């Protein structure tokens, strides 16, 4: 059973970082973009010390989900220092709502990215998603949140390798990912 994702909503007033429109982000000069990205990385990389900080982080992840559907922004975010921070948050965030929103953001980035840099740790994200699905295999709600992201990353790697003559070692897909995916398809 595939769950339809609910529309993402965020509150501009609670954000400590300006929530620019997609058009504004696309037209930013490199200096302004790097400043914005650095602030985003600092905020997302910080631990949630209280529920207010967790809510603020969750709110900003919702904002990023709304701008990640634009191809140019998705390319810039996916190929930036933000992607490793998203992987870290997927691994260490104490709040599962944050992990689920991070997974959704990674999936949206993978879906809308058209140019993947060779240094983007996509294989690490795939391994982590595989581990999380395996550890929480009986939790169907969690699987429904993590499986689409795993599928989008696998598709992104396949389409990038198809564009190039030689496959890149940095995009090696562990066999465990296919095993977990097949088990999910078989057992639901």
TrEMBL record:
InterPro entries: ARM-like, ARM-type_fold, ULK4. Keywords: Kinase, Transferase. Transmembrane segments: none annotated. One of its GO terms (molecular function) is kinase activity. Gene3D superfamilies: Leucine-rich Repeat Variant. This is ULK4 kinase. It comes from Probosciger aterrimus (Palm cockatoo). The gene is Ulk4.
């Amino acid at each position: 059973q595939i769950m339809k994702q609910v529309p993402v909503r965020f509150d501009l007033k609670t954000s400590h970082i300006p929530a620019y429109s997609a058009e504004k982000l696309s037209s930013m000069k490199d200096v302004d973009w790097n400043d914005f990205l650095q602030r985003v990385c600092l905020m997302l990389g910080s631990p949630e010390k209280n529920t207010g900080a967790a809510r603020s982080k969750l709110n900003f992840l919702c904002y990023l989900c709304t701008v990640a559907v634009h191809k140019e922004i998705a390319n810039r975010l996916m190929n930036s220092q933000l992607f490793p921070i998203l992987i870290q948050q997927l691994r260490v965030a104490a709040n599962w709502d944050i992990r689920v929103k991070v997974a959704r953001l990674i999936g949206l980035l993978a879906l809308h990215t058209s140019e993947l840099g060779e240094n983007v740790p996509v294989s690490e994200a795939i391994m982590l998603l595989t581990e999380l699905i395996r550890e929480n295999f009986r939790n169907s709600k969690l699987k429904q949140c993590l499986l689409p992201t795993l599928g989008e990353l696998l598709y992104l790697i396949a389409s990038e390798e198809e564009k190039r003559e030689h496959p890149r070692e940095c995009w090696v897909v562990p066999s465990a990912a296919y095993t977990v995916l097949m088990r999910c398809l078989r057992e639901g």
